[in-house]
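Researcher: I need the complex structure. Ligand is magnesium ion. Inputs:
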Amino acid sequence: MHNDISEIYFSEQDLADRVREMGEAITRDYAGVAGSDGIVVISILRGGAVFTCDLIRAIDLPLEVDFMAVSSYGNGVKSSGVVRILKDLNTDIRGRHVIIAEDIIDSGLTLKYLMQNLESRGPASMTVAALMRKNTENQADIPCRYVGFTCPDKFIVGYGLDYAERYRNLPYIGVLKPEIYQ
Ligand code: 5GP
Ligand code: MG
Ligand code: MG
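Model: Output:
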């Protein structure tokens, strides 16, 4: 285990198993609607990238993947609620079935903003696949169809999630020792 990690929450095997199940659920649910155009998976950079890459390989349907980069945290550990689009989609999602692939829902403010923004582009449908949802008080009410894990309100890193751009490459998800960010 990495020296800056106090505890492993979800092992590499836990993640692989759960993401596979999420992909299978999406495959079942969208088999009737995907059509030949397929679905559009929108990956929210940068935290959602690792999850997305595993998730799409577990979905057995025609699909496109596109990326959007948003910033809500800066280098801190709490969401500011002010969301900036740093990179927009290249895909026109009008009339398409969209699944947003996000790493974790904390305050829910990022997704709330994103869903409003994407809804205004006229997709045929839109759902959210979040690898994790934190047990946070006052979380925005986000309809999230696919949730991998519920997790406690602690700052975690790995499997795409960073602290100050580090630790994204850890193959597991773990709790960062508080002395690293205090
Ligand atoms: P929210 O807007 O829901 O508060 O959180 C937005 C983003 O903050 C998440 O998509 C994720 O990228 C990041 N985030 C939230 N909680 C954590 C955490 O515990 N660890 C890390 N590394 N990032 C988090
Ligand atoms: Mg994210
Ligand atoms: Mg981050």
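Model: Summary of the prediction. The chain has one domain: 13-151.
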